[in-house]
Amino acid sequence: MNKTVDGKDKTLRNLLSGAQYSIDYYQRDYKWETKQVNELIDDLAGKFLQSYHPDHARQEIANYPAYFLGSVILSRKDSSVFIVDGQQRLTTVTLLLIFLRNLQLEMREIQDPNLEPLILSTQYGQSNFNIHIEERDPVIRSLYEQTELLDLDEESPLQNILSRYEDIADRFPDECKGHALAYFIDWLIERVQVVEISAYSDDDAYTIFETMNDRGLSLTPADMLKGYVLSNIRDKDQRKEADQIWRTKVPSATVQSRDTENDFFRTWFRGRYGKSVGTTGDDYERLGPEFHRWLRDHAEEVNLSHSDQFASFSKTELPFYAHWYTEIKTPTAAPDTRFPALHFVSRSEAAIDQGMLLISPLASSDVNEVNQLKLDLTSRFLDIFIARRIWAVKNITNPALKGTFVPWARNIRKLSPNELAAYLYAELTKAGHDNFETEPPGYLSPSRKRVHRLLARLTHFVEASAGDGTTLFSDLIVTTGRNKYEIEHIWPNDFERERDSFDNEQEFRQSRNRLGGLLLLPGTFNSSYSDMKWQDKIPKYSRPGHNLLAASLDGETYENNPRFVEWTKASGLNFQPYGGDKPFDRGAIDERTELYRSIARLIWAPDSLLQVPNIDVEFVKERAQELLAGNA
């Protein structure tokens, strides 16, 4: 029988175990970006955590709801199987499986479930990865074996694979680790399903692909929301005007991504209407994929009962929130004087729904200056909150924090600027909250990207305070290309040089990798200094092209830069040079770590909320004390 097309439902275990897939040379490179990876991890973790309970037996996972990952189109020819559509998803799933296997090893867990057969298999004595693309194999193997890969060309698409693996490590929630890890893996490989569509010629495979993707465009939730709102405007002229507003004012893909339209409505509705999370009637979760249905079900609740209200919603509320969404989401090269912290918040890559909190206190009934004031306050608050979590090596993922963020968003709606400042100030000054007391993350932190950004903020602060202001945070966080910055170890990786100060090599490495032993340098300098002794490196740090945080290690900076010296005295920060009679030894790394801690406390001081123009400081402090005392 001459088969043409064959479709089957399969679990990830069925699809990947013992199979080997290839792609033709003309297929796209791996193109997924951070956003797509984050969405997949959030979807998978969210679906799993809806059912998971630590008291469950693992057999109960068989009754957990399934998750549909989509279809995979295959062309079976010449005894090989080629992926025609779905390689982006399957590559990402492979990266996730490798991450989970590495997590098992890190946690010293028995590899149960055993993920190895889903990642690679052996045929005719040759071991290959199940998604077998020859040019990618060195990168995939380095991740699988946890070995260091030789520097890649920054323009190579292979760099994107490494970056997306880091995104998975950043985004994967703590709630799915520990005891939950084996449960999550079981659910992933047994309850996540795909439809495998197999053709037996390229022509048939690509006909299926084109039919599924090109004939007609599926309506998005944003499209369906627009249809619902416009259909309830009875006056023809009003409906025509509203339609034009929807066409021109809804943020487009140029703001953030192809999903910008849906993200705009999710952010707006969660910030302004969401009330509950983690309950049966969970508004937050429903306002993700089903915001259009949520609005229909809650129309009267949000004052949408008759035609004029739907028209006003389109002509007033929609353009208002579209404007502020664009302000919040559009990256800037340097801080905006209206809300300086927003620049850093928008680039923090915290995996939490920041936009929801930023937009929640804004109101179309307020004048523009009042909304600017509110956004300034909320972005400063978020900047401090995120920095504290990163310093304390705490989770900043959505599953971990949405239970905090949804009540915050609900509580700050419609507050005046002074009431908003008091509420946020109270949250930051609660007893027991992180205040940079703990040991900060180091080079071996689970997320090196966050360490890089922490160093970038410290470096930028010193430059902006005592330098010429030309070294921008947006430059310091660049990690690829010719103008990239890299983390520099002040000590070279040579235990023998420091043997007298340590009982063993592990102690040496722990100390070398502490935050106080690290800097940010342009990539070209970092690579040329890597093997030098610290005695030879430090004098180079004060040369042109280096930042002040690095230059502060060298005595010449204190002789040739009076502005820097004056600032250090005024700030009270304990900067000091090293070399000669003062070696950069183990104690020096302790000193630099404490210096970084002092800088962090200056950058992220709760009192920055009191420095916002037109805020009544006395009222804010008194009201915050009332809130902390429970007299709200």
Question: How is this structure best described in words?
Answer:
The relative contact order is 0.08. The protein has a four-stranded mixed β-sheet with strand order 1-6-2-3. It has a two-stranded antiparallel sheet with strand order 4-5. A two-stranded antiparallel sheet has the order 7-8. A hairpin with a 2-residue loop joins strand 4 and strand 5 (126-129). The protein has three domains: 5-214, no CATH class; 221-428, no CATH class; 448-603, no CATH class. The protein is globular, with a radius of gyration of 27 Å. Residues 213-217 have low confidence and may be disordered. 52% of the residues lie in helices and 8% in strands. The chain has helices spanning 12-16, 34-51, 87-106, 116-119, 137-145, 158-171, 180-191, 202-214, 221-231, 236-249, 260-272, 283-286, 291-297, 307-329, 340-346, 354-359, 368-391, 398-412, 417-428, 448-466, 473-476, 505-512, 523-529, 534-541, 548-551, 555-560, 562-571, 586-603, 617-628; strands spanning 5-11, 67-77, 80-85, 120-123, 126-129, 192-199, 485-489, 518-522. The chain starts with a strand and ends with a helix. The chain is an alpha+beta fold and 632 residues long. It has 29 helices and eight strands.
